[in-house]
């Protein structure tokens, strides 16, 4: 099982499973920007040699200031953390919800964080017939919101890639719910301003928005994310946060990448071209592809292929191509996989490997 620790991108486990050196895999199981880390990251690493003997800024003032300028909000509305995972855990420990509503499939760490504090989880299963979109008139969602519970939603959602209508979030808030919106992949959305609720979170005491910096800037080795809310409620999170959870290297790199405007433009241009191409190629060989606003695709294996997600992951891994077994997300069955969108040459390798697996299984009588 490649998702032994609950995530894709585990190259060490893949290395052990397939006896292939980690650097030789083409990894479609984690959703990083295939352009690689910006040049400013390498420059920051060189600069860091003269800073390593100093403590990091415990208030992360430099990065918070740049993030505040980026979103046109008050720096007091921001807490920077050791990746989105720390911030999910932090907001749950702060709010201590007795009941949390999740729309599944979704990121596993939402439920994990709730269960760690002994909270209950109420799951609303999204329908594949509706392309896993969350409906504004969902009766179950409205009922959950009316109880004053916490609702946690991803936008774009992982693994479906679907955006959440901001009007739905506003409706939940009007009914008394606390809402946490995980916008870890929002940077990949060209019309981000239409969907992001970062600015609204600074004005509503029951709304929080989590952002990640690792996916868009391809720096997963540096755990870095931030959460936005009203200054008064954000201060409560800051009091619960472990001191110096964001090291000085992460702070330095975070400040550097925010200046990479050309990199951001090239990323959006690449995705606009490559996503429809890859979707078309996958559909041409029989896969059912869910529409996505992000840099990854949720795919259903055709019934006549005779392959489960785990079987396909195994055969792809033997070819040095890693994919995500999406059946491990609550709400999805054994026919679902998830793949990142990469550069054209890598995407062509993915398609070739899929064709090989489908042909191999057909020859085996599967």
Walkthrough of the structure:
By secondary structure, this protein is of the alpha/beta class. Helices cover 41% and strands 15% of the residues. The chain contains 14 helices and 13 strands. The strands form three sheets. Strands 2-8-7-6-5-3-4 form a seven-stranded mixed beta sheet, with helices on both faces. A four-stranded antiparallel beta sheet has the order 9-10-13-12, with helices on one face. A two-stranded parallel sheet has the order 1-11. Strand 3 (99-104), helix 5 and strand 4 (120-125) form a beta-alpha-beta unit. The longest helix is centred in the C-terminal third of the chain and has 24 residues, at 261-284. The protein is globular. The two termini are 22 Å apart.
Portion in beta strands? 5-15%
The biggest sheet, with number of strands, parallel, antiparallel or mixed sense and barrel status, is: 7 strands, mixed
Radius of gyration, in angstroms, nearest whole number: 21 Å
Q: What level of helicity do the residues show?
A: 40-55%
In which order are the strands of the major sheet placed? 2-8-7-6-5-3-4
Give the overall pLDDT as a whole number.
Answer: 92
Stretches where pLDDT is under 50 for at least 5 consecutive residues are none
Distance between the termini: 22 Å
Q: What's the helix-strand series?
A: HEHHEHEHEHEHEHHEEHHHEEHEEEH
Judged by helices, strands and strand pairing, the structural class is alpha/beta
Number of β-strand runs: 13
Shape category: globular
Please tally the helical runs, counting DSSP H or I stretches of 4 or more residues: 14
């Amino acid at each position: 099982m490649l998702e032994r620790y609950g995530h894709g991108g585990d190259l060490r486990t893949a290395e052990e499973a397939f006896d292939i050196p980690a650097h030789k895999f083409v990894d479609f199981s984690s959703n990083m920007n295939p352009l690689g880390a910006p040049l400013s990251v390498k420059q920051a690493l060189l600069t860091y040699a003269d800073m390593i003997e100093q403590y990091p800024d415990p208030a992360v003032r430099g990065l918070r200031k740049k993030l505040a300028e980026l979103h046109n909000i008050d720096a007091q509305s921001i807490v920077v953390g050791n990746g989105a995972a720390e911030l999910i855990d932090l907001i749950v420990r702060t709010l201590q919800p007795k009941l949390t509503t999740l729309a599944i499939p979704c990121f596993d760490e939402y439920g994990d964080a709730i269960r760690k504090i002994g909270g209950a989880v109420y799951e609303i299963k999204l329908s594949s017939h509706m392309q896993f979109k969350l409906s504004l008139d969902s009766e179950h969602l409205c009922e959950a919101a009316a109880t004053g519970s916490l609702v946690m939603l991803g936008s774009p959602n992982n693994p479906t890639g679907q955006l959440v209508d901001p009007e739905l979030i506003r409706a939940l808030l009007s009914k008394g719910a606390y809402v946490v919106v995980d916008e870890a992949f929002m940077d990949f959305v060209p019309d981000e301003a239409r969907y992001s609720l970062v600015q609204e979170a600074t004005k509503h005491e029951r709304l929080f928005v989590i952002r990640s910096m690792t996916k868009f800037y391809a720096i997963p080795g540096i755990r870095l994310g931030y959460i936005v809310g009203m200054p008064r409620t954000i201060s409560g999170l800051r009091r619960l946060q472990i001191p110096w959870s964001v090291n000085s290297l992460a702070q330095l790199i975070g400040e550097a990448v925010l200046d990479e405007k050309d990199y951001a433009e090239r990323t959006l241009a690449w995705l606009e071209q490559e996503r429809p191409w890859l979707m078309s190629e996958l559909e041409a060989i029989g896969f059912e592809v869910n529409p996505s606003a992000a840099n990854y695709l949720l795919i259903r294996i055709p019934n006549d292929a005779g392959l489960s997600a785990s079987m396909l992951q195994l055969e792809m891994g033997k070819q040095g191509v890693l994919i995500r077994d999406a059946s491990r997300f609550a709400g999805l069955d054994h026919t679902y996989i998830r793949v990142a969108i990469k550069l054209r040459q890598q995407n062509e390798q993915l398609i070739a490997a899929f064709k090989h697996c489908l042909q191999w299984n057909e020859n085996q009588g599967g």
